[in-house]
Amino acid sequence: MEPLVSIIVPCYNSSKFITATLNSVIAQDYKSWELIIIDDKSTDDSCNIVEAFASKYHNIQFISLSENKGVSNARNLGMTMAKGKYIAFLDSDDIWLENKLSRQVAYMEDKMLPMTFCAYNRINEDGAIISGVTPAPVTYSYHQLLSHNVIIFSTSMVLKSVIGDLQFSPAGHEDWIFFLQLFKKCKLGYGINEPLALYRIRKDSLSSNKMKAVVKTWKILRESEKLNLAMSMYYFSRYAVLTVLKRLR
């Protein structure tokens, strides 16, 4: 029997994109999955769209929150509901290629891996590809993560037993903090160097605000990871260099 994959999708005002995201899950050639969608009190038509999907597919669960508490809370709630051997994360504006789940599950089952991620393409708000393939390294470690996070969250799949009681922090850059805590437990993440996902770049996305990203990176090193000043400066310098090189590419 194929292992169950629990897919967690936090949603907030994603009516423009959520249909394509959910259709990409339904189109997967791997069929042993459950989809848990947590709406964080959207004010647009997101809930109506998701409810229509949930009424049609028995393996889609939809939770509509009465109060907006942020993406970390939504993901944490989704993880408590997850029944799968694996948990896959998908943001409500990103898209999976049809063999994303089958490729990752097969790799993880064959190699007995705790966590995988994959290469991807960037798309714009209209769904057009705007970059070449961003490759995935063979492995990625905690110390590499301290310098730079190359893992797009919608490409990740994690063994649920490895996550355990780990939760998302509300501190900002919650994806990065989650991976740092996870890699302390599983040591390495393993990359599949095939583009299995489409990562959407939005004009209003947090990642587009470079100054906020710089400030939050420093706070992660000092407050979340509690590195001393010298080590924080070392990893922050590496972060700055790698970010500049990324922009130049």
UniProtKB/TrEMBL annotation:
Keywords: Transferase
Signal sequence, start to end: none
Gene Ontology molecular function: any one: hexosyltransferase activity
UniProt cross-references to InterPro entries, sorted A to Z: Glyco_trans_2-like, Nucleotide-diphossugar_trans
Keyword Transferase: yes
Top-level taxon of the source organism: Bacteria
Domain spans labelled Glycosyltransferase 2-like: 6-133
Ranges annotated as spanning the membrane: none
Protein name as catalogued: Glycosyl transferase
